[in-house]
């Protein structure tokens, strides 16, 4: 097993030494995760830029198509994300015999998810009709989704196999194949969108084909690597084929569905806010989108640390080292708060420079600068909540956090944001800034409730330790 997953002897070393050692482990695990996340974001940026150079219609179609497949993928990504703490727990408990059965049940769920996504995305005509799209834009959107659908099995296959590689502490594996996918996507986009090597120019539809091919090649390469690598040869991915097991799949779904639903709820919230802001005009919408893009980019670092934290906590619980798991869960909040503070200062100090990087329109810049002030506070609450919920996922505690996030986003953040944006009930209507204040309030609520849940749940690790030995047989 990976050396970075070895638990420390409890609790003989000085507290500061153990804390710094655990933070180093998070950095080793989280660094490749960060690069993988940035590579995946780069695919979206490449698609947007290259489709935009084809035509405005192609850009709009790819944007609409992405907004339709992304929430579905995020749900299944979260659902299959349960494999990471499950396999990491088995790794920590040295229950190697349970790793491949869990992986195979995840692969069956990925196959089922692929069928659902393909059926939904190739039959979106009613949704496109409701959007009242211009006929050619609707045609390109459907063509893009039809082409993209061919790569869905490969996309979810890689997501499921990430549970195996990340769960064993080898986060550099998915990093490498995510970068490979991005490197393939760029020339494929050029060939299919603009019509090179004798192929007709496909515009936005070509974007879908490029994504499918890059996903397919990366997934095939990952399978070859897992079957030939000296490290993974011991697991016999193909030879140790396991039949579908309903109990095993239920165990994964019990942990994964709340994660997927939580991610879906968050993604849908930002989509709804964008719709609410549309009547305020294109300048406000543009400023909001820039601020959101900046925050999303900065969020990749704490998100990566959070994913590493999930892996580490689940490993330590499986290894029956609850004191160390408790230490890393709580000390990570200090690391998260420090990271958030640095980001908040950067947003405050360099807001004008950041806005100027995105647009030369002075009106949009003014809106962006104002929103980045609120985004700085939003960032602090967001980083703390993702750290808390990531630690809880390491304990396989996902159901209660799901309800906490649902309440915080839709019970606190959205209503408060709507009132502050459009109403004069509490203060004079704030415009787009009202939603940022509302979101910050919702995230602050989530941070407090999840923090309480973490501090109350983490000491009671006996449940988590016993859970690490249950599940997929």
TrEMBL record:
Segments spanning the bilayer are 68-87, 107-131, 143-161, 173-195, 201-226, 251-278, 290-311, 332-351, 371-392, 404-427, 433-456
Q: Where in the cell is it found?
A: Cell inner membrane
BP GO terms, sorted: monoatomic ion transport
A GO-annotated cellular component: plasma membrane
One term of GO molecular function: antiporter activity
Topology with respect to the bilayer: Multi-pass membrane protein
Q: Which domain of life is it from?
A: Bacteria
Q: Mainly localized where?
A: membrane
Tell me, what's a Pfam family for it? Answer: MatE
| InterPro entries, sorted | MATE_fam, MATE_MdtK, MdtK-like
Q: Which UniProt keywords apply?
A: Antiport, Cell membrane, Ion transport, Membrane, Transmembrane, Transmembrane helix, Transport
* Residue ranges of coiled coil: none
Task: Identify the PANTHER family for this entry.
Answer: FMN_FAD EXPORTER YEEO-RELATED, MULTIDRUG RESISTANCE PROTEIN NORM-RELATED
| Protein's name in the database | Multidrug-efflux transporter
Gene, per the UniProt record = norM
């Amino acid at each position: 097993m990976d050396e970075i997953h070895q638990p420390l002897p409890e609790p003989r070393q000085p507290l500061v030494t153990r804390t710094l050692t655990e933070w180093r482990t998070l950095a080793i695990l989280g660094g490749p995760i960060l690069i993988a996340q940035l590579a995946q974001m780069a695919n979206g940026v490449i698609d947007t830029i290259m489709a935009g150079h084809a035509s405005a219609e192609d850009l709009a179609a790819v944007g609409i198509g992405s907004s339709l497949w992304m929430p579905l993928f995020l749900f299944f990504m979260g659902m299959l994300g349960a494999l990471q703490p499950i396999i990491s727990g088995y790794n920590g408990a040295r229950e190697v015999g349970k790793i491949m059965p869990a992986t195979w049940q995840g692969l069956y769920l990925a196959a089922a998810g692929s069928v659902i996504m393909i059926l939904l995305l190739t039959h979106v005509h009613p949704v496109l009709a409701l959007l009242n799209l211009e006929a050619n834009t609707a045609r390109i959107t459907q063509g893009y989704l039809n082409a993209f659908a061919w790569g869905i099995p490969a996309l979810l296959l890689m997501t499921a196999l990430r549970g195996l590689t990340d769960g064993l502490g080898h986060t550099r594996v998915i990093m490498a194949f995510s970068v490979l996918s991005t490197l393939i996507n760029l020339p494929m986009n050029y060939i299919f969108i603009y019509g090179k090597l004798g192929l007709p120019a496909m515009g936005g539809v070509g974007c879908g084909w490029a994504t499918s091919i890059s996903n397919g090649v990366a997934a095939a390469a990952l399978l070859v690597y897992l079957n030939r690598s000296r490290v993974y040869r011991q697991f016999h991915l193909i030879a140790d084929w396991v039949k579908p097991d309903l109990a095993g799949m239920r165990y994964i779904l019990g942990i994964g569905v709340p994660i997927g639903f939580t991610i879906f709820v968050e993604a849908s919230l930002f989509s709804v806010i964008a719709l609410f802001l549309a009547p305020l005009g294109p300048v406000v919408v543009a400023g909001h989108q820039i601020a959101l893009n900046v925050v999303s980019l900065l969020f990749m670092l704490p998100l990566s640390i959070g994913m590493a934290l999930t892996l580490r906590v689940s490993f330590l619980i499986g290894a029956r080292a609850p004191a160390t798991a408790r230490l890393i869960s709580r000390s990570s909040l200090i690391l998260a708060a420090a990271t958030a503070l640095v980001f908040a200062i950067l947003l405050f100090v360099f807001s004008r420079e950041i806005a100027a990087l995105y647009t030369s329109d002075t009106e949009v810049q003014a809106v962006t600068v104002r929103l980045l002030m609120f985004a700085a506070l939003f960032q602090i609450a967001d980083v703390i909540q993702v750290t808390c919920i990531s630690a809880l996922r390491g304990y396989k505690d996902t159901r209660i956090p799901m309800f906490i996030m649902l309440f915080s986003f839709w019970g606190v953040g959205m209503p408060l944001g709507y009132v502050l944006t459009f109403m004069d009930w509490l203060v004079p209507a704030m415009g787009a800034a009202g939603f940022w204040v509302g979101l910050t309030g919702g995230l602050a609520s989530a941070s407090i409730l999840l923090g309480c849940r973490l501090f109350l749940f983490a000491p009671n690790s006996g449940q988590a330790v016993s859970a690490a030995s249950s599940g997929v047989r």
